[in-house]
Design goal:
The chain is mainly alpha-helical and about 130 residues long. About 70% of the residues lie in helices and about 5% in strands. Strands 1-2 form a two-stranded antiparallel sheet.
Length: about 130
């Protein structure tokens, strides 16, 4: 376990993913929790949140960079897709709760953290002069 490998991107993605899962217990739509008020969108939120957490954990525990890099790429892709879908749900559905807006912010946090982690990462195997 090496905490020195962590950048702000991994920490942001991991904490945002944990926050998104915790916010599913709050009121999302119509006063119901995120678990009860969503179907397919719930799966996207869970996948995005777990990818953010996986990015943090895999960066700390993996010696290879393969898993963290995959988590960065998929976390950014799923984060962007999920953010757009949740934003559409917030605009279309009636009576969105505070947890839905905070959940959108957490999902954007996973996408932004994954993007930052991709941009900050220094890969010594790659040299643009070759």
């Amino acid at each position: 376990m090496t905490l020195r490998k962590l950048t702000i991107g991994e920490v942001l993605a991991g904490l945002s993913g944990a926050g998104a899962i915790a916010l599913l217990f709050g009121p999302w739509f119509g006063g119901d929790s995120g678990w009860a008020s969503m179907t397919v969108v719930l799966a996207l939120v869970l996948i995005t949140a777990l990818l953010g957490i996986f990015l943090l954990v895999s960066t700390v525990y993996q010696r290879s960079q393969a898993y963290p890099v995959a988590a960065e790429v998929f976390g950014f892709a799923f984060g962007c897709l999920t953010a757009v879908v949740v934003l559409i749900e917030l605009l279309v559905r009636t009576d969105p709760g505070w947890a839905a807006w905070a959940g959108l912010a957490a999902i954007i946090g996973v996408a932004a953290g994954s993007w930052i982690a991709m941009r900050i990462a220094v890969r010594p195997e790659y040299s643009p002069s070759r």
